[in-house]
Specification:
The chain folds into six domains: 3-134 and 146-240, Jelly Rolls; 249-299 and 309-336, Mannose-Binding Protein A, subunit A (Mannose-Binding Protein A, Chain A), CATH 3.10.100.10; 339-422, no CATH class; 463-588 and 595-695, Acetylcholine Binding Protein, Chain: A (Distorted Sandwich); 699-787, Methane Monooxygenase Hydroxylase, Chain G, domain 1; 793-846, no CATH class. The longest helix has 28 residues, at 760-787. The chain is α+β, with helices and mostly antiparallel strands. α7 packs antiparallel against α8 (727-751), α7 runs parallel beside α9 (760-787) and α8 (727-751) packs antiparallel against α9. The chain is elongated and about 150 Å long. It contains ten helices and 49 strands. The strands form ten sheets. Strands 1, 2, 4, 9, 10, 11, 12, 15 and 17 form a nine-stranded antiparallel sheet that branches. Strands 3, 5, 6, 7, 8, 13, 14 and 16 form an eight-stranded mixed sheet that branches. It has an eight-stranded antiparallel beta barrel with strand order 23-24-25-26-27-28-29-30. It is found in: Membrane.
């Protein structure tokens, strides 16, 4: 019979150090229970109180640690630590793999042994170091003594093991740290029980003769104190150990016609197993059938899948054969260790809670308590007491183990849900009696064959509230409320400048505390519950940095949950058929109050809320440098109501670097008109602003606007290179280019965003149109000067100079070819900057055009 040592708060305080414990087998012995791979229990032994002054010496040359370990059959990790001890320069670890085979590790070297531990049985394991030989002693001048060679030794069930490992240690200069499980976060602890932990110092391989010596010197004591340091789901209990190293076995007869799997499940629910091929001798006397096959057995071979798979079977005539696993045998044999405790959970007060299994010589068995017993008849199982006449019945041929509806003979229609189980303190019973690790209960993965380990894990048993809880009032009203946040930008859709809208899909993670709520029955991982049952932050969203138009998100998905990386330890409660967690039945409130006083509720838990939404909002950009430039598109979140008393803190530590923090975004950065440079988050005035940093992408406009307009201007400008006399060609080209530029400008203004102010592209088009207009005007002036009459040589000179300046395509320094000889030898010259030879004027009145050809 085992019982807990007080409340969970006391269970986790540590273990008391005692060099000698006067506990003998059969009495309450302190046992450490490691519930999951993240639990460990460590204690440091002072060097001056552990080792002799001259250690190591001839009389004391070895140190080690011994314990009784009872591992669970199913280990959650393939490489698990059972116990270890370490000091300066020394570290020795013993552990098991998924098949419970032993391995040892000294320093960085690991050795795998061929020996294995027995599941759900006490195994005496020892490991240590012994001085192999001494190196030369050091001289007084040497600061550090020479290293000593140590040999690793180990034993299992009192028999030494072959361990070819060694270590070099300078001196035992520090204290010795002994751990049950592993103290490293990188490694995993085994799941199971440990007792009889002793630190041994002496000579040779310090292996005890029997496990009773370990129990007498057990360092785990009650009450628990601070000499041991627990971490994670590890606790202590008292257990009634009767012959832990040599437990007799009871052979039971299961008289149900079941196949291999059902019969094995029934046997396992009793805490037993099928007989092996080696121990079938002597079982023929329990002949329960007239058929050829007597019972299912077990072997170490792997079973194939499918309907044709075969399983080993014990023959009625002796020997072992094989039979399809789906075959049904009339009966089967089950071997159960004697002395296993069986517990009855449920809302009853007039029956015993704890029972022992008793078996008769013919294989029939029943469960005996102090005042009650559970027996079987042809009608089914019956729970009755010798103190009163009340009886509960379990009808049918179903097994008695597990969670069942027991009915009273006086109230046939009323049923009491009771759980009768052999599961230990770190296990949970499924409805059909299969024991799974309590850490696997409600973890989101099915472990029990009937899948009942994932039932009653949600909102029905998760949430408890104060009597006057109001979801509309935030926790810690009038005080600072810390809300942790984390943004994840999933998608940023394409953005068009003419629409000016940003479409963003966001994940917003929030976490806060609420001291008005109580949480129970939580599983490791995520525990979901409806958000409308509690207060949750309500946000006001608007576009802009301080103020702007309201934003109403669409496609909103919200999930509220608790997340526990390690399940908090909860105490067994015998009045709960679900083995420890308070329910919400008729006495839910009263039981909740009692649970709160006992500390079984988890208070001030981290409540998490996941929000996924799509927000479409205007960016309110001033695109003066369009299609170039950098811009910021803001979306601001503010808490609705009492936002001044909110302190925002980031969850993701990566978002703490930099000011403002940069959000990681792995989506598409090409947003059509813009390129997404980065996403930042500003926290200001109790508000949060999500900012998209955008860079204009002018590639499209360079091809469709800037290049064509530039070409048209060059075409317009090229009209200056046409002959001056070809006025029609010059004016048509320049005018056509001007008209095309105006058309391009009109087309461009219809395709991009319209603003009341000029943009860079507008300035570009207007500038080119003005330049082309000036070209047209210049061509007209040049032609006017060409056709204007001149009356004297001086006026002709002025016209020539002005025409050359307007006709900028004509080089000012080029000298024209001399004209043919004229009737008069006289010559006129242009100014020195543009020398031109003019013909002689025979009749100046007839000189009416420039340029002209001689007559």
């Amino acid at each position: 019979m085992k019982r807990y040592l007080g409340s969970p708060a006391r269970l986790l305080l540590g273990l008391t150090c005692a060099l000698v414990m006067g506990a003998s087998p059969g009495e309450g012995v302190a046992v450490a229970a490691v519930e999951s791979s993240k639990g460990n229990l460590c204690r440091t032994f002072p060097q001056n109180a552990t080792f002799p002054e001259d250690f190591p010496s001839e009389n004391a040359s070895s140190v080690g640690v011994c314990a009784l370990a009872r591992p669970e059959m199913k280990q959650p990790n393939p490489y698990s630590h059972i116990m270890s001890f370490q000091s300066s320069g020394a570290s020795v670890v013993v552990g098991i793999n998924s098949s419970l085979s032993l391995w040892l590790k000294a320093g960085e070297e690991t050795h795998h042994l061929n020996d294995s531990l027995k599941a759900e049985a006490w195994n005496m394991v020892c490991v240590g170091l012994s001085v192999a030989h001494d190196t030369p002693t050091s001289t007084p001048e040497e600061k550090h003594p020479p290293a000593k060679a140590y040999q690793v030794w180990a034993s299992l069930q009192g028999l030494p093991l072959d361990v070819p490992l060694g270590a070099n240690i300078t001196e035992w200069e520090e204290d010795v740290k002994v751990c049950v499980g592993t103290s490293s976060k990188r490694d995993a602890s085994f799941t199971g029980f440990v007792t009889g932990v002793t630190l041994q110092v002496g000579k040779g391989e310090l292996t005890p003769d029997n496990c009773s010596l370990l129990l007498e010197a057990n360092q785990l004591t009650a009450p628990l104190n601070e000499s041991w340091t627990p971490h994670g789901p590890v606790f202590a209990l008292e257990e009634d150990l009767r012959e832990p190293c040599n437990t007799p076995v009871l052979t039971l007869v299961l008289r149900e016609t079941w196949d291999h799997d059902k019969a094995l499940r029934w046997c396992r629910s009793l805490g037993g197993h099928f007989p092996t091929e080696e121990v079938t001798v002597g079982m023929m006397t329990l002949n329960c059938t007239s058929e050829e096959h007597l019972s299912w057995t077990s072997d170490a071979s792997e079973r194939k899948e499918g309907p044709t798979a075969t399983c080993p079977v014990l023959l009625a005539s002796g020997g072992v054969g094989r039979l399809p696993c789906l075959s049904e045998l009339e009966c089967s044999l089950c071997q159960v260790p004697a002395g296993l405790p069986y517990t009855l959970f449920g809302a009853l007060t007039d029956f015993d809670r704890h029972y022992r299994l008793s078996a008769r010589q013919d294989g029939f068995f029943f469960f005996q308590g102090e005042t009650s017993n559970i027996t079987r008849s042809a009608a089914g199982w019956t729970l009755q007491s010798r103190l009163h006449r009340r009886q509960l019945h379990l009808n049918g041929s179903v097994g008695v183990m597990g969670r069942r509806a027991w009915r009273s003979s006086s109230h046939a229609h009323a049923a009491d849900t009771l759980t009768f189980t052999v599961c230990n303190a770190i296990q949970f019973s499924s409805d059909d009696g299969v024991c799974v690790l309590r850490s696997e209960r409600c973890d989101g993965r099915v472990h029990a064959p009937d899948m009942s380990d994932e039932e009653d894990c949600g909102s029905r048993r998760l949430l408890g509230k104060d009597a006057h809880y109001d979801p509309g009032v935030r926790p810690f009203a009038g005080q600072k409320l810390t809300i942790y946040y984390m943004f994840e930008v999933m998608v940023v859709n394409k953005m068009e400048t003419d629409k000016g809208l940003a479409n963003v899909e966001l994940n917003l993670h929030l976490r806060w505390e609420d001291d008005r709520l109580r949480f129970v029955d939580t599983k490791m991982g995520r525990n979901s519950f409806p958000c409308h049952q509690i207060w949750t932050p309500t946000f006001l969203m608007f576009a802009g940095y301080y103020i702007g138009p309201a934003v109403h998100p669409a496609a909103n998905r919200t999930l509220c949950y608790l997340y526990w990386e390690e399940m908090p330890r909860q105490e067994h409660q015998l009045d709960d058929p679900l083995m420890g967690e308070p329910g919400t039945g008729r006495d839910g409130a009263g039981r909740a109050g009692r649970a709160l006083r006992r500390g079984r509720y988890m208070t001030r838990a981290n409540i998490s809320q996941y929000n996924n939404f799509v927000a479409s909002y205007p960016c309110l950009l001033r695109v003066s440098r369009y299609p170039f430039g950098k811009y910021m598109c803001n979306l601001t979140f503010g808490l609705f109501g009492d936002h001044e008393n909110v302190d925002w803190k980031v969850i993701d530590p990566r978002q703490e670097n930099g000011n403002p923090p940069i959000l990681y975004y792995h989506g598409d950065h090409d947003l059509l008109d813009y390129k997404l440079e980065k996403i930042t988050l500003y926290v200001h005035n109790n508000m949060m602003t999500l900012t998209l940093h955008l860079i204009g992408q002018p590639d499209y406009h360079l091809i469709n606007n800037f290049l064509p307009s530039t070409l048209m201007f060059f075409i317009c400008y090229s009209s200056f290179f046409f002959p001056i006399a070809g006025f029609n060609e010059r004016i048509m080209v320049s005018l056509t280019s001007l008209l095309v530029l105006v058309a391009l400008f009109s087309q461009a203004t219809d395709s991009y965003v319209k603003t009341p102010y000029y943009k860079l592209i507008d300035v570009w088009y207007v500038s080119l149109i003005i330049l082309c207009f000036l070209v047209v005007i210049a061509n007209g002036v040049v032609n006017y000067l060409r056709v204007q009459r001149v009356k004297s040589h001086s006026s002709l000179m002025k016209k020539v100079v002005l025409a050359k300046k307007l006709n900028i395509a004509t080089p000012l320094t080029r000298s024209p070819k001399p004209p043919r000889a004229l009737t008069s030898p006289s010559h006129l010259s242009y100014p020195s900057t543009a020398p031109v030879t003019l013909p002689r004027l025979a009749n100046p009145r007839k000189l009416t055009r420039y340029p002209f050809k001689p007559v």
